[in-house]
Amino acid sequence: MLNSVKIGILGGSGYGGSELLRLLLFHPNAEIVFVTANEHAGKPVSAVHRNLLGVTDLSFSPTPEDLSQLPEVDVAFFAMPHGAAMSLVGSLPKSTKAIDLSGDFRIDDVDVFEAAYGRPQTADSLQKEFVYGIPELFRNEIAEAQFIANPGCFATATILALAPMIKSGLTTGKIIVDAKTGSSGSGAKAAANTHHPQRANSFYAYKPFTHQHLPEIEQCLNRVGNFTSSLVFMTHSMPVSRGIFASCYMETTSALSNGEARRLFEDHYADSRFVRIVETSPDINWVKMTNYCDIAVHASGKTIAVFSALDNLVKGAAGQAVQNMNLMFGIEETTGLLFPGTNP
């Protein structure tokens, strides 16, 4: 284990980069060497992220086309728009690990990736070196990895909700997932559908049957167990700034009681500090600003309902990335991440 992990953050001006900074500045084993943002190069980080005023003296630097020009670090976090990391990761020094928060390296099949993201996979050979970073499922692989594809926020909430059922082999037929996200999932740049007067009291579905996280979810569940169900995945925009809430419905081959269903989840996540099994329903308020995913499960005969909630910027992005970093460097998995949410 390294006492101090030297860190670079590429793309530090967005919400994902902001959360990485917020978490890593207080991580006892983290030393942030540089943070890049082309549009803010030369500016103090605290001038862009006002919540960090008085916390750091770091300034943004530009992102070079060849990352070997940057100071050497142990790990580089990529918090850049989709498509950016695939052109940059290959120029990292061989000794530098990487954690990518975009979707560039999450999907193994090139054709599936290109259909989901509408762009060519220009780093196919590198993609094969990436490990999908859900610690609760792939802890050992992550610990040995050079490169991590950090999962999407919808994908994390859905996979954690479904994994115990898929691993049990009890599901049959169609699985329906009805998932909602807050406005920060759309990123920091303003757009018509994220403009406050439009978003504040609005609720709508988007990307029916075509959300880019769907193939990522299916790929992961196929690794968890014999995933033969068809998955209907519908996403919605809700009028909050942070949070993912996923409602998942499925049929089982035999009837389960509420107690049996709950024990299945408790056993599956017994060693997972950041998954909490709760009564009745999770609430996005209780996971906001945390690395927790709260899950509730209910059974009615052969019908199962699973609800999951997480913060899309923490467990759905930066927090999970830090959790992966801890595993990659032999640091206790929960380091820098064990804090509760706010009330209210």
SSE diagram, text form:
Layout: E1 5-10, H1 15-24, E2 30-36, H2 45-48, E3 60-61, E4 75-78, E5 97-100, H3 110-117, H4 124-127, E6 130-132, H5 135-143, E7 147-149, H6 153-168, E8 171-181, H7 196-199, E9 204-206, H8 213-224, E10 230-237, E11 244-252, H9 258-268, E12 275-277, H10 284-287, E13 293-300, E14 303-310, H11 314-328
Parallel strand pairs: 1-2, 1-4, 2-3, 4-5, 5-7, 6-7, 8-10, 12-13
Antiparallel strand pairs: 8-11, 9-10, 11-14, 13-14
Helix pairs in contact: 1-11, 5-11, 6-8
Keywords:
344 residues, alpha/beta, Rossmann fold, Dihydrodipicolinate Reductase, domain 2, 7-stranded parallel sheet, 7-stranded mixed sheet
Query: Based on DSSP secondary structure assignment, what is the total number of beta strands?
Result: 14
Q: Helicity, in percent?
A: 25-40%
Mean pLDDT score, rounded? 95
Give the strand order, joined by hyphens, for the main sheet.
3-2-1-4-5-7-6
State the secondary-structure class: alpha/beta
CATH topology of the largest domain: Rossmann fold
CATH architecture of the largest domain: 3-Layer(aba) Sandwich
> Runs with pLDDT <50, length 5+?
none
The main β sheet shows up as: 7 strands, parallel
How many DSSP helices?
Answer: 11
SSE arrangement, N to C: EHEHEEEHHEHEHEHEHEEHEHEEH
Q: Specify the overall morphology.
A: globular
Q: Give the percentage of residues in beta strands.
A: 15-25%
End-to-end Cα distance = 37 Å
- The tally of domains stands at 2
Assign the CATH class of the largest domain: Alpha Beta
CATH superfamily of the largest domain: NAD(P)-binding Rossmann-like Domain
Radius of gyration: 20 Å
